[in-house]
């Protein structure tokens, strides 16, 4: 039986309403039958998808099958041909980001680039980046405003882009009850979107408001789907899961720069491998006075901010 035939023949279950491992005691068929009446607004999932192992437990052959299924589903649901990679961390690499707040002028091009690059829902104009308009003299995010509509930059203000800080002590990872999110060797915190149950504990735990919950199935016109995707990055995420910035790992692990950096017209963004002694980011961190957000929380962000003066 083909994957498509199997998908049509199996009952529908909802991943968000299930407790991982339940089928171990009930048996797969019994467990699927037991939870199928609990369907609601979350992503509906076939039994084959539900019983997929955690990403870190999949063999290379299993990954190929899963990725092939996801590519087929994207073609069926969005009318777009995509290639989903399995991009792994590069040896000897620790990715770090920094932003020059003296240069950022709040233009929002980074927000737009993230929206398009990462196949976000078009109707909600979602992005992993928020740009806060801040009063000068403070780094307190709570004093920032993201809804400004006037011409930028404004007198007496500076602009603070905030996205996932890729913490070395990520509270979002600690609270996940099913280990759907974890930190990889190159410093990037990732999510297995096929394993996430949508409990939103990670969203609540993040002090930077860097996680996003998919309340509905993303709407992306076929012509606007970014076809260059990665399993742990910018593939179109299902409804009912929490997603996040991955430093565009589908680009950075292939030797490219994050989309937000390439779109920045002011040159405010700096990205690179801190383990490379000749990298721009290494020089910056050794020669500039840098700040991290909410340092008192001990999350140890890999995202830095600095001013020219």
From TrEMBL:
Classification via CDD domains: PsrB (cd10551)
Superkingdom, taxonomy of origin: Bacteria
GO terms for MF: 4 iron, 4 sulfur cluster binding; metal ion binding
Domain 4Fe-4S ferredoxin-type positions: 187-216
InterPro entries named among the record's database cross-references: 4Fe4S_Fe-S-bd (IPR017896), 4Fe4S_Fe_S_CS (IPR017900), ET_IronSulfur_Cluster-Binding (IPR050954), TAT_signal (IPR006311)
SUPFAM superfamilies: 4Fe-4S ferredoxins
Record keywords: 4Fe-4S, Iron, Iron-sulfur, Metal-binding
Entry-linked Gene3D superfamilies: 3.30.70.20
Protein name: Tetrathionate reductase subunit B
Name of the gene this protein is made from: ttrB_2
């Amino acid at each position: 039986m083909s994957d498509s035939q199997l998908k049509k023949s199996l009952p529908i279950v909802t991943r968000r309403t299930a407790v991982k491992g339940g089928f171990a005691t009930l048996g797969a068929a019994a467990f699927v039958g037991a939870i199928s009446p609990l369907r609601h607004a979350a992503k509906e999932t076939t039994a084959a998808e539900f019983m997929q192992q955690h990403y870190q437990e999949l063999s290379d052959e299993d990954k190929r099958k899963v990725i092939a299924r996801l590519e087929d589903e994207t073609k069926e649901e969005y009318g777009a041909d995509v290639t989903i990679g399995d991009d792994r961390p590069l040896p000897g690499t620790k990715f770090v980001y920094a932003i020059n707040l003296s240069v950022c002028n709040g233009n929002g091009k980074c927000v737009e680039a993230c929206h398009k690059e990462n196949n976000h829902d078009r109707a909600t104009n979602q992005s992993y980046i928020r740009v806060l308009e801040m009063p000068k003299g403070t780094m307190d995010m709570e004093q920032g405003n993201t809804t400004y509509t006037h011409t930028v930059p404004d007198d007496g203000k500076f602009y603070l882009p905030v996205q996932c800080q890729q913490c070395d002590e990520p509270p979002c990872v600690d609270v996940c009850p099913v280990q759907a999110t974890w930190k990889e060797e190159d410093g990037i915190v990732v999510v297995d979107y096929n394993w996430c149950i949508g409990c939103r504990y990670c969203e609540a735990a993040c002090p930077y408001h860097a996680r996003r919950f998919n309340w509905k199935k993303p709407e992306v016109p076929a012509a606007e789907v970014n076809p260059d995707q990665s399993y742990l990055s910018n593939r179109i995420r299902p409804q009912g899961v929490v997603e996040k910035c991955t430093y565009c790992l589908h680009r950075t692990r292939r030797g490219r720069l994050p989309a937000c950096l390439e779109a920045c017209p002011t040159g405010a963004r700096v990205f690179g491998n801190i383990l490379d002694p000749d990298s721009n980011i290494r020089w910056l961190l050794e020669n500039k006075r840098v700040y991290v957000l909410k340092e008192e929380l001990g999350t140890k962000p890999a995202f830095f901010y600095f001013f020219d003066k």
